[in-house]
Design goal:
The complex is a heterodimer. Helix content of chain A is about 75%, strand content about 0%. Chain A has twelve helices and two strands, in the order H-H-H-E-E-H-H-H-H-H-H-H-H-H. Chain B is mainly alpha-helical. Chain B is globular and about 70 Å long. Classes of the chains: A mainly alpha, B mainly alpha. Chains A and B meet through helix 1, helix 2, helix 4, helix 5 and helix 6 of A and helix 1, helix 3, helix 4, helix 5 and helix 6 of B.
């Protein structure tokens, strides 16, 4: 009797354990599936164009010739602009939230930043297209252009949607993630670091600079890389403000495209196997880049703070 | 006694405080501005028709987004069916069973999945479901959103399950209750609020996703009569209207964006206020 019951319990336990294991390993299945589907879909394009696909600027459906270079460059440049704007603001905000802000203000500010992260990308893009871009076109771009006229990247007619607008919208989108992870990192700096600096007579800012920021440098870098990963793959908001031209022009005021935005823009209009396949290959390139960047970010965050600092979503 | 540069150092201290404060304001500004413009441009177009009618043909006044609102709820319902069981059970494995090496691998894969761009998910499910099924469908749209939920729900479930004190498990096991029933009836029940929080936040997140739906759910100007048909969703309709050249559609898009934003923010605020006391600073 007793034995039977134990056997029953063990049986139930075993089933449940295997069931949860099965569910947990779906993440491996999904990773494999994503890689496999994109690779299979890209095969005709890979077969036809080879490595040349990555360095070719042609996107010509009439002659069925495709290349990824303008989109790769557009992705890198727009994300880079986004980072240049977002990083100083995010890190400063994280510093304000953990070191300098009055205590009663911290929780509400954190809440607002989390809500900003929750705004759907399409809404931000919509707002960007109808409110932000016209405003930039009217107030920010003309003075920028007249001040920095001597630099080639500030040349070219400004139509509104452009690389710089995409960079700014990307900055808005990655500020929350960089801020909240930097904040976690700063919070995990041991208090003794601060106390030691205070004991030497440092002011609050000096404590932050000498004892906190220099200690947290690596972790913050990890947060920035994670933000970069987000920016590279961001789709809707960018699609709506970048202008969607299959070109890369080294000017901030010219329309362009990113890998993600060009897929979103062309997929439903694609005709012919090679066209589709090339879009799949753009997806494959995008996947490769974002996965590498994310792995790098995870490694940096893990070596900094152990398992206690987890990326937030 | 004070050092000669004392004034300068104090000045720098105040200056940095002001600069970082300005940065914090800059961070919040887009949230406030987006909300302000959505209310200003969208509120006027909200009426009963908006919630009860489907879009009118181009050129006709009126019409609404009823099909898109229902469509969004159908899609997130499907997503929940796909994503919640897998995510929660996977989270249970990570928290209660897995060895450290296995867990490292699963977490790593889940974090990679969390970083996969949303448009990529759409392309993958297009190849996986839309091509074999010869067309876009509500089913494909739900599955893609569900897949995106899996890693999110798994990680948050794991985190809240680990907050349950080990004593709870030990007490139950000591009473001779089997491990699986201990997990389900003691551990999961204790952490249930946190798990639900994670699920709701994941649902709110996928409810606003557009890119993965572009070529899976595809959108529909009327009602979808089965899960095998293309279905409308609010983010899709907002995108299509916003990028159209028609004033009337823009107005509808502002109203739709306002409703969607309110929905997403509502879930986020309620969930965070509800759980603030109990899991303060832990999740």
């Amino acid at each position: 009797m007793m034995e039977q019951k134990t056997a029953g319990i063990q049986f139930g336990d075993r089933i449940f354990k295997w069931l949860t294991l099965l569910m947990a390993i779906t993440v491996f299945v999904l990773v494999g599936l994503i890689g496999y589907e994109l690779f299979v879909g890209s095969k005709p394009a890979i077969h036809k164009f080879g490595w040349h696909f990555l360095i070719s600027s042609d996107w010509d459906p009439t002659n069925d010739v495709y290349g990824a270079l303008p989109f790769i460059l557009g992705t890198l440049v727009s994300s880079f602009i986004g980072l240049i704007i977002a990083v100083p603001i995010s890190v400063a905000t994280a510093v304000y939230l953990t070191e300098l802000a009055p205590l009663w203000l911290r929780q509400p500010l954190v809440m607002f930043i989390e809500l900003l992260a929750a705004i759907p990308s399409v809404i931000l893009g919509f707002w960007g297209l109808f409110v932000m871009v016209p405003w930039l076109h009217k107030y920010l771009f003309p003075p920028l252009r007249s001040t920095f006229e001597f630099l080639p990247v500030f040349k070219g007619t400004d139509y509104g949607p452009c690389m710089l607008a995409a960079g700014i919208i990307l900055a808005i989108m990655i500020v929350p993630i960089i801020t909240s992870i930097s904040r976690e990192i700063l919070r995990s700096v041991p208090p003794i670091q601060r106390e030691a600096a205070y004991a030497l007579g440092a002011t609050r800012w000096e404590v932050t600079r000498i004892a906190v920021l220099s200690y947290a440098k690596k972790g913050i870098f990890g947060a920035v890389i994670l933000g970069l990963g987000r920016a590279l793959g961001e789709t809707m908001a960018v699609t709506m403000v970048i202008g969607n031209a299959p070109q890369f022009v080294p000017s901030l005021f010219q329309p362009g495209s990113t890998l993600a935005s060009w897929i979103a823009n062309q997929f439903t209009e694609a005709i012919g196997d090679l066209f589709y396949s090339s879009l799949f290959e753009l997806g494959l390139v995008l996947l490769g880049v974002t996965v590498l960047v994310n792995i790098l970010a995870q490694l940096m965050l893990k070596t900094f703070a152990g398992p206690s600092v987890k990326p937030q979503h | 006694m004070t050092a000669p540069n004392h004034k300068w150092r104090q000045f720098k201290d105040v200056l940095m405080q002001i600069i970082t404060f300005i940065c914090a304001v800059l961070v919040i500004a887009p949230l406030v501005l987006v909300f302000y413009h959505l209310v200003k441009l969208g509120f006027g177009s909200l009426n009963l028709d908006f919630f009860t009618h489907v879009p009118k043909a181009l050129g006709e006044k009126g019409g609404g987004m009823a099909n898109a609102i229902v469509g969004t709820f159908i899609l997130i319902g499907e997503a929940a069916i796909v994503g919640v069981p897998i995510g929660v059970l996977g989270g249970i494995y990570l928290s209660e069973y897995g060895g450290s090496k296995m867990n490292w691998g699963i977490r790593f894969a889940a974090d990679i999945l969390n970083g996969v761009p949303s448009i990529t998910w759409g392309v993958v499910v297009y190849g996986l479901m839309v091509i074999p099924m010869h067309g876009s469908s509500a089913l494909a749209g739900g599955v893609v959103l569900g897949m995106m939920m899996i890693p999110l729900v798994m990680r948050t479930s794991e985190e809240v399950l680990q907050l349950v004190p080990p004593g709870y498990r030990e007490a139950s096991l000591a009473l001779g209750i089997s491990k699986w029933r201990t997990i389900l009836q003691i551990v999961v029940r204790t952490a249930l609020k946190g798990i639900i929080t994670g699920v709701l936040l994941a649902l709110a997140r996928v409810a606003g996703e557009t890119a993965p739906l572009l070529f899976t759910a595809f959108g529909n100007l009327g009602w979808a009569h089965s899960l095998k048909e293309p279905i409308a969703a609010m983010p899709l309709l907002i995108y299509n209207y916003a990028t159209s050249p028609y004033e009337d559609w823009h107005r509808q898009a502002w109203a739709g964006a306002l409703v969607l934003l309110l929905l997403v923010l509502f879930v986020n605020i309620v969930v965070r206020v509800m759980t603030r006391d109990r899991f303060k600073n832990k999740i």
